[in-house]
Amino acid sequence: MDLLNTLVDKGLRRELPTREEALAVLATSDDELLDVVAAAGKVRRQWFGRRVKLNYLVNLKSGLCPEDCSYCSQRLGSKAGILKYTWLKPDEATKAAAAGVAGGAKRVCLVASGRGPTDRDVDRVSQTIEAIKEQHEDVEVCACLGLLSEGQADRLRSAGADAYNHNLNTSEGTYGEITTTHTYADRVDTVQQAQSAGLSACSGLIAGMGETDADLVDVVFSLRGLDPDSVPVNFLIPIEGTPLAKEWHLTPQRCLRILAMVRFVCPDVEVRLAGGREVHLRSMQPLALNLANSIFLGDYLTTEGQSGQSDLDMIADAGFEVEGADTTTLPGHRATTGGGCGSHDGGCSPCGETPEAAQDSSEAPAVGPEPAGAEPARTEPVRTDLVTVRRRGAGTDIAPNA
Ligand code: SF4
């Protein structure tokens, strides 16, 4: 396929595909799917070899959020039967993190529900970061605490945080349909604050919320414009008790196409296979390792994942290897410049494209035939049997599954 040859060439040169090319990846047929995976796999191997980075989630504070993100089981008014607890103490959080590190995690992600942290919250998370770093010198710590106020990113950085996560989640055009209590611009601002403080930015998306192919391409192009170092790709877990509980749109094949598209648009970025992989990729999970170079180990924030041992077995069986603590995840051109797409010499702004510019380009009309699946399908299998609310690990007396 000319399309795939072009995309591989561009990916190996870290060159941005066109919107039409990204849309065309999402529109490929099932007959073409293995070719798509193989092509994106070449780009993945060029920048990350066969390494898989393991990340471990610690939910520091669960539920009771005043925000109304429709996909989230911790949202205002959620009827989901999730664990609800307030801030873990630093020693409890450190103990939870240690389980992930023992399981092979290279990064610990400290996550708290809520609109954003108070300064007191930043203090307590800082204590947790320091305690984790004291016990595990080499582990990377990422904080995910919501919208940041001025100076908070600097304080987290000073406490030893390596990274900050804040996802864009969906396109700017559809953001208001998903959340009303904060804006897409608020999210962009927090990612930029993290970057300004010298934190490695992690920002990604959630697929499967009823968005069109154009929405997916919009958010991924906006992410490329923001230039985070890692891009988590979540597949919506439609949890009973949330407004999106009936939104089952994803097939394993569609998930693979989405991951391939993200890899082509963000070739040298850590693409992380995140929430929903067990539910939507199911037996196709190992194939996705050809596209993503990073996964979460074990459970998610409010739902259970497959066991950490199953994750490790899957990686080995598929011919990949767990990335060691002494290996730098990002390719040299990114790791040494602290960001930037690497396409330009010197201290250019990321990708030479501002998020606003990326958004502008995303508003250009797509050319060519409207891709199949442009509107979300409504007939995918409902697999509520694969969704299990987390009852172990952080916030419980039961051992985690890492
Ligand atoms: S702000 Fe975070 S925890 Fe709160 S509803 Fe939104 S995604 Fe969930």
Automatic annotation (TrEMBL):
Q: Which SMART domains match?
A: BATS, Elp3
Q: How is the cofactor bound?
A: Binds 1 [4Fe-4S] cluster. The cluster is coordinated with 3 cysteines and an exchangeable S-adenosyl-L-methionine.
For the ligand ([4Fe-4S] cluster), the binding residues are C65, C69, C72
Query: Residues in domain Radical SAM core?
Result: 47-277
Q: Name one molecular function that GO assigns to this entry.
A: biotin synthase activity
Task: Name the pathway.
Answer: Cofactor biosynthesis; biotin biosynthesis; biotin from 7,8-diaminononanoate: step 2/2
EC id? 2.8.1.6
The reaction(s) catalysed by this protein are: (4R,5S)-dethiobiotin + (sulfur carrier)-SH + 2 reduced [2Fe-2S]-[ferredoxin] + 2 S-adenosyl-L-methionine = (sulfur carrier)-H + biotin + 2 5'-deoxyadenosine + 2 L-methionine + 2 oxidized [2Fe-2S]-[ferredoxin]
Region described as Disordered: 351-402
SUPFAM superfamilies with a match to the protein in the record: Radical SAM enzymes (SSF102114)
Query: Could you tell me the keywords of this UniProt record?
Result: 2Fe-2S, 4Fe-4S, Biotin biosynthesis, Iron, Iron-sulfur, Metal-binding, S-adenosyl-L-methionine, Transferase
Ligand binding ([2Fe-2S] cluster): C109, C142, C202, R272
Which InterPro entries does the entry mention? Answer: Aldolase_TIM (IPR013785), BATS_dom (IPR010722), Biotin_synth/BioAB (IPR002684), Elp3/MiaA/NifB-like_rSAM (IPR006638), rSAM (IPR007197), rSAM_sf (IPR058240)
Concerning Pfam families, the annotation shows:
BATS (PF06968), Radical_SAM (PF04055)
Cofactor(s) recorded in Swiss-Prot or TrEMBL: [4Fe-4S] cluster; [2Fe-2S] cluster
Q: Which principal EC class is assigned to this enzyme?
A: transferase
**Where are the compositionally biased (Low complexity) regions?**
363-376
Record family assignment: Belongs to the radical SAM superfamily. Biotin synthase family.
Briefly state the protein's biological role: Catalyzes the conversion of dethiobiotin (DTB) to biotin by the insertion of a sulfur atom into dethiobiotin via a radical-based mechanism.
Summarize subunit and interaction data from the UniProt record for this chain. Homodimer.
- State what protein this is by name: Biotin synthase
What is the scientific name of the source organism?
Answer: Streptomyces clavifer
What gene does this protein come from? bioB
